[in-house]
Amino acid sequence: MTIRFTDLNVIYHRKSPFEYHALKNINTTFENGKFYGLIGHTGSGKSTLIQTMNGLILPSSGTVETDGIILSKKSKQKLIHQAKMKVGMVFQFPEHQLFESTVLKDVMFGPMNMGIAEEAAREKACYYLKLLNVHESLLEKSPFELSGGQMRKVAIAGILAMEPNILILDEPTAGLDPLSHDETMQLFYDVYKEIGITVILITHDMNDVLEFTDEVKVMSQGELAGEGRTADILTDQNFMERYDLEVPHVIQLARDLKEKGIALNGTPKNTAEFIRLYEDWRRNNA
Ligand SMILES: Nc1ncnc2c1ncn2[C@@H]1O[C@H](COP(=O)(O)OP(=O)(O)OP(=O)(O)O)[C@@H](O)[C@H]1O
Known about the structure:
alpha/beta, Rossmann fold, 6-stranded mixed beta sheet, 4-stranded antiparallel beta sheet, 11 helices, 40% helix, globular, binds adenosine-5'-triphosphate, membrane, ATP binding, cell membrane
C-alpha cells in the first residue's frame, strides 16, 4: 500500500497567537512493503506527519493519499474512518490501552469492533498472538497479570489483528530493558517479513534504524530534510553532522578502523555483521 504526501502543510492553532507551522510542503512517498525509518529531532514533525495518515490530524493544505484514499483539509468523517482502518498505530506504551478481562478478549476486541464475527476474530487473535510469541497458556489470563514486555506484545497483537495495511511504530520500545528491546525489535522485523506489511518506525535509536529499516526519511524543523536507502543516509557523514544525528555504533566503529587503515568491505548493520566483516578483512590481509 502506497502512501503519498503532496504539498502537505500542517499549521496548528491557525490564526491564533499560538499559530505553529509544524509541516512545511512535504512531498514524499512510502512504498508498499518496505520497512521505513522516520527520524529527526524532538519537535521536527514526525508524529504530526504520521497522524495525518489516519486523519487524526487533517492537512491545512495539500493531501495525504493512503491506498487510494485522499485526505485533505475538507475530508469528511466517513473518508477519515476508511483511512483509519488501513493504518495501525503502535504509540509509546501501547499496553496502557489494554482493558479487557483476558488476553484473548483484548486482542479480539479490535476485529469484532470492525464487524468481524466472533469465531473469525478469535482465529485472527490466536494467529497474531502466536506470531508475537505470546504463549497459549496466557490467553485466558488477565493482561494485567503479565510482565511489561508480554503486555506490550498483547497490545501489538491487538493492533495487528485488525489487519492494517500499514503499521506505524512510534518509539515502540520506550521503557523496555535492553533484552526486551532487542527481542521486541526482532519480533517486529519477523512479523514484517511474515505478513509483508509496510512498516514505519519512528525512533531516536539509530542502531535500530540501521539494523532493521530499508529506507529512511529525515525530518528537520517541519521539513523533509532527506530520504534514501538507510545505509546511504546513515553513512553520509556531512548529512548526519548537518542534522546533528547520532551515528550508529557499528558505523562509528567501522570509521575508527578505517582511520587505522582497516577498510571493511561493506557497511555492517549490526555487531554480528561488523565482526564478520572484520574477520573477512583479517583473513584477506593475513
Ligand atoms: N497539538 C499541538 N498544538 C500545537 N503545537 C503542536 C501540537 N502538536 C505538536 N505541536 C508542535 O509541532 C511540532 C512538531 O511536533 P511533533 O510531535 O510532530 O514532533 P516529533 O518530531 O514527533 O517530536 P518527538 O520526537 O518529540 O515526538 C513541535 O514543535 C510541537 O511542539
